Amino acid sequence: MRLFIVPLILIGLPLAEIAGFVLVGRTIGLWATLGLVILTAVAGALLLRSQGLHILRQLSAESREGRLPGETLVDAAMIVVAGILLLLPGFITDIIGLALFIPFVRRLVWSAIGRHVVILGPSGRGGYRQTREPSGKGGGPGQVVDLDEGDYTREPNPSSPWSRRKREEE
Length: 170
Fold this sequence. Notes:
Layout: H1 2-28, H2 30-64, H3 70-87, H4 91-100, H5 103-113, E1 120-122, E2 128-130, H6 164-169
Antiparallel strand pairs: 1-2
Helix pairs in contact: 1-2, 2-3, 2-4, 3-4
């Protein structure tokens, strides 16, 4: 079912954007439509810059406090996607991009996709610890293996073509 969605988006979105151009062009005219497309691209670049600087300040503050900036990084990623969508020509992508600049919409999107994401952060012992519990089938905490440096060693395979002994023999 999911594989059907990707071709639908890749074919359907450009067709919907073209239909949007035609409808808006008929309503407000060619030059106004082109001006609107350029205006949204410039607005997207300005919003991306201002919101990006705000996110960088938040990331810096959370790093100074020693916290993992998980939610801030997700916000930053959504703002980058929103800016890219605004830079692309088209009214549907502009509407989605403008919506992603609204913090409430970003929280809604994160609540929808966040349960499928596991955020790992460095622990004090050199391994990793899980900072968010995964949900759904197959994604339990038992799949995360935390090893110290001494818990795992790898012996070189002498028959490997990349081993030193093999190269020195040749």
